[in-house]
Design goal:
Blueprint lengths: L1 H27 L6 E8 L10 E5 L7 E4 L5 E7 L4 E7 L6 E7 L5 E3 L3 E2 L6 E3 L5 H12 L3 E2 L3 E2 L3 E2 L9 H12 L2 H17 L8 H30 L1 E2 L2 E2 L6 H9 L4 E4 L4 E3 L1 H17 L7 H24 L5 E2 L11 E3 L6
Helix pairs in contact: 3-5, 4-5, 5-7, 6-8, 7-8
């Protein structure tokens, strides 16, 4: 009986002893000695890169460590676990990222990262191309806000250094906007009143005569603007606006202003004879010659209309160049002139 019990207990005792020995061995087994990773960060010329960011990353978030290079470009990571795959990432301002993967240290290994030479980051230039027509639209919108002392329209003066050329549609838009402005209409009414006082043209000196003079003023003014500032400039590819010079000697600015009735810019930016403006004056005189009283009609009416238009543009240009720009409300910055956007994206690893 005792022998039978002993046979059953012995195997169990041996198993317990073996398990105890195994646990003891596992508990007492030492961890692998950690290693060290060092390196020096250089630029393409071989010079040290100080203050570069160095990140050592592993599989787990707890394995991520970071450092900054010294003045000589040197960095060091101590107590790096052995047997765990790491990757090393180096970045610095103005340089592309440098990456080294699959770094697995042996116990106690002293690892030197090889050839950490950063290359200059690729620069990507993004240029926003704005169609010329769109720029012109924005510039004309700004011009339509220009007013002398806050209320008198001053739409036909360009203060931009390099304005975009006007399309035919913009030329007509600018003309209609000027003609329907309340101050423009009030100006036509004032001009008719002056004609009434002077008794010209030879209509009656009563309300009927004033109405006729008012109609004649509107007809002549509308014809001059629509023909001289919209229709002919569209057909002849000329720009009806006055281009403010603002710089140079007083003499050069004065000559620039006085030449306004005769010299105009084409849509290509070149100076041309002002066929549009003079054509508008002649058209206005011809229209007036059709409805003025008989005693006021004749070739002299057309010539006088042209001479008055020339003289008026001279005086207006001189005032624009030397006086009115001080009292004109306008945008001081160019409209929609975008500079290229420069960015330095991270190149693929």
């Amino acid at each position: 009986m005792a022998l039978r019990i002993l046979k059953r207990v012995c195997p169990l005792f041996l198993c317990i002893c073996a398990a105890t020995t195994t646990v003891t061995q596992q508990t007492s087994a030492p961890e692998p000695r950690p290693g060290t990773i060092i390196g020096t960060v250089l630029d393409p010329s071989g010079a040290a890169v100080p203050q570069a960011s160095v990140v050592l990353g592993g599989r787990n978030p707890g394995d991520v460590r970071s450092s900054v290079t010294q003045q000589n470009g040197f960095f060091r990571f101590d107590s790096v676990k052995a047997g765990i795959p790491y990757h090393l990432t180096v970045s610095a301002k103005g340089f592309a990222k440098w990456t080294l993967s699959d770094i697995t240290l042996e116990p106690g290994q002293y690892f030197i990262a090889p050839d950490i030479k950063l290359r200059v980051a690729d620069v990507q230039v993004t240029v926003t191309v704005v169609p010329t027509e769109q720029v012109a639209v924005q510039q004309v919108k700004a011009q339509m806000q220009q007013r002398i002392v806050g209320f008198i329209p001053n739409f036909y003066v360009v203060y931009e250094q390099n304005p975009a050329p006007l399309t035919p549609k913009l030329k007509f838009d600018l003309a209609f906007r000027f003609l329907v402005d309340p101050i423009t209409m009030a100006g036509f009414g004032f001009n008719a009143a002056m004609y009434q006082i002077g008794g010209y043209p030879s209509y009656d000196q009563n309300w009927k005569g004033f109405g006729q003079r008012l109609g004649a003023t509107f007809a002549g003014g509308y014809t001059n603007v629509l023909v001289g500032d919209a229709l002919l400039p569209s057909l002849l590819h000329q720009d009806p606006r006055y281009f403010y010079q603002g710089t140079g000697t007083t003499k050069s600015r004065l000559l620039h202003a006085l030449s306004r009735p005769f010299v105009i810019k084409g849509d290509d930016g070149r100076s041309e004879f002002n066929f549009s403006g003079i054509g508008g004056d002649l058209a206005s005189g011809a229209i007036a010659n059709a409805y003025y009283p008989d005693k006021d009609r004749g070739a002299h009416l057309v010539v006088r209309s042209m001479l008055i238009g020339i003289g008026g543009r001279m005086v207006n240009a001189v005032f624009q160049e030397f006086v009115l720009h001080k009292f004109t409300s306008r945008q001081h910055k160019p409209v929609d002139q975008k500079e290229p956007e420069i960015s330095s994206p991270s190149p693929p690893k």
